[in-house]
């Protein structure tokens, strides 16, 4: 297969003029990066993961540009006000695999009152165009409807702030789930300052209403590490995944959730899990050695998550998040068990920090 430098691949994405051209690029990316050695090592895997997320960002960004152009060709003109297309979930954290689905939203500047209706109409049309185009490129729609095409996740700046205030002050389980989703928000296209301002407001609200932090524990600790009391893996019992472990919900998500809440406790604004850990260490919120152990543990989980069962079905790239343990060497299984034990310690530390918030600052 033809070799292409990273710069050339990104340039090819930027030069695509139609969605079908972007689809061909994505198919090439999957053919080229979807195979590889079982474990490449932390540094190599980290660099590879970063570049895969650069490719995702470039593809999504170009999709939005083409969607803007399509609306202009329909006579709707350019965007009426500045806006940002946001990624949540693994996209917001810069941790997408080749098989991640869509989790996105949109924030736009406040329009003049007399133009509010047409502004809302424009961004509704744009959002549907983008989400449908991404689906054509193989990104599955979000099963939970966390999507810019859903009005609940497409709002003006002031509407977003008002909604966050309601979520924080009322604090139902579902509202807290939404708050944790927004904590991972990242601008992938458009006015980054809108997202920065929203995240700043979010953090100010958690300081004004500190009871929301311990209230986040139930949602944060809902998923447990996939080790039982005897230190053995908790495996799937039935179906085609029998004998596999749920590396997504039994390792990756619990780690992500724990580091996210710990970061909120210590006012860390990064979205990447590894960057959050680095900031927690730099701020001395977590002892250096402990932070390094958690970093190593999460890095291995990221590597293994990329190996989970996956497929292309009806043009969509999907993953079950399940990993066949028998495909791992004894050494890797032992390393994974160690990482999961570190994850259990992380969850204990998060519970301690959240319950002590805002007076207790240490782990």
Automatic annotation (TrEMBL):
<protein>
    <recommendedName>
        <fullName>Signal transduction protein</fullName>
    </recommendedName>
</protein>
<feature type="domain" description="DUF294">
    <location>
        <begin position="215"/>
        <end position="352"/>
    </location>
</feature>
<dbReference type="InterPro" id="IPR005105">
    <property type="entry name" value="GlnD_Uridyltrans_N"/>
</dbReference>
<dbReference type="Pfam" id="PF03445">
    <property type="entry name" value="DUF294"/>
</dbReference>
<dbReference type="Pfam" id="PF10335">
    <property type="entry name" value="DUF294_C"/>
</dbReference>
<dbReference type="InterPro" id="IPR018821">
    <property type="entry name" value="DUF294_put_nucleoTrafse_sb-bd"/>
</dbReference>
<feature type="domain" description="Protein-PII uridylyltransferase N-terminal">
    <location>
        <begin position="51"/>
        <end position="172"/>
    </location>
</feature>
<dbReference type="GO" id="GO:0008773">
    <property type="term" value="F:[protein-PII] uridylyltransferase activity"/>
</dbReference>
């Amino acid at each position: 297969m033809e070799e292409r430098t990273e710069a050339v691949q990104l340039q090819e994405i930027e030069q695509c003029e139609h969605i079908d051209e972007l689809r061909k690029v994505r198919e090439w990316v999957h053919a080229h990066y979807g195979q590889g050695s079982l474990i490449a090592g932390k540094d190599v895997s980290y660099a590879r993961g970063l570049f895969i997320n650069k490719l995702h960002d470039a593809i999504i960004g170009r999709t939005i540009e083409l969607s803007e152009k399509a609306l202009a060709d329909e006579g709707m003109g350019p965007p009426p006000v500045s806006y940002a297309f946001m990624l949540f979930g693994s996209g917001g954290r810069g941790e997408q695999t080749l098989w991640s689905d869509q989790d996105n939203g949109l924030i736009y500047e406040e329009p003049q009152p007399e133009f509010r209706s047409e502004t809302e109409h424009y961004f509704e049309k744009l959002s549907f165009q983008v989400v449908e185009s991404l689906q054509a490129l193989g990104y599955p729609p979000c099963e939970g409807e966390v999507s810019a095409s859903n009005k609940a996740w497409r709002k003006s700046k002031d509407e977003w702030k008002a909604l966050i205030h309601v979520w924080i002050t009322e604090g139902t389980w579902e509202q807290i789930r939404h708050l944790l989703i927004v904590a991972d928000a990242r601008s992938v296209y458009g006015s980054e300052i809108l997202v920065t301002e929203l995240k700043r407001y979010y953090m100010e609200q958690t300081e004004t209403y500190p009871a929301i932090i311990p209230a986040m524990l139930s949602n944060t600790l809902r998923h447990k590490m996939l080790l039982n009391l005897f230190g053995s893996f908790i495996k799937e019992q039935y179906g085609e995944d029998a004998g596999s472990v749920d590396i997504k919900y039994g390792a990756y998500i619990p780690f992500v959730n724990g580091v996210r809440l710990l970061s909120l406790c210590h006012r860390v604004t990064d979205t990447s899990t590894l960057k959050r850990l680095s900031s927690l260490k730099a701020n001395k919120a977590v002892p250096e050695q402990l932070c390094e152990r958690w970093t190593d543990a999460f890095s291995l989980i990221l590597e293994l998550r990329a190996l989970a069962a996956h497929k292309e079905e009806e043009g969509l790239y999907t993953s079950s998040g399940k990993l066949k343990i028998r495909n791992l060497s004894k050494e890797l299984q032992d390393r994974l068990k160690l990482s999961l034990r570190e994850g259990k310690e992380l969850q204990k530390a998060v519970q301690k920090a959240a319950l002590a918030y805002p007076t207790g600052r240490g782990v």
